[in-house]
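tool_call: predict_structure(chain=1)
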Amino acid sequence: MAEKKTTKKAAAVKAEEPKKATVKKAPAKKAEKATVAVNAENAGFKAGDVYQALAAAEKALTVKEIAKAAKISEEETLLGLGWLFKEGKLNAADDKVTLA
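tool_result:
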């Protein structure tokens, strides 16, 4: 068998071949928690959202269900629930909330 000899020219051509570009993935971003503005105006609006969600459902809902129905975060839901509890508009039983 005859061996193939590599010449300097062939080695230089191999060295000049473009290298495949490596794709670096950006580090995964951590989910940022939404900040809730705690003031009377915002609490009143969130209370309205919660009230409307409970009125539309016509049954007792959990905090998570209320947040989903009202399309607000759970923190905002709790803010609105606090407002409504203080006004006496809600009843709670078995981790569920309903209109009074």
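agent: Helices lie at 8-16, 40-57, 63-70, 74-86. Proceeding to next step.
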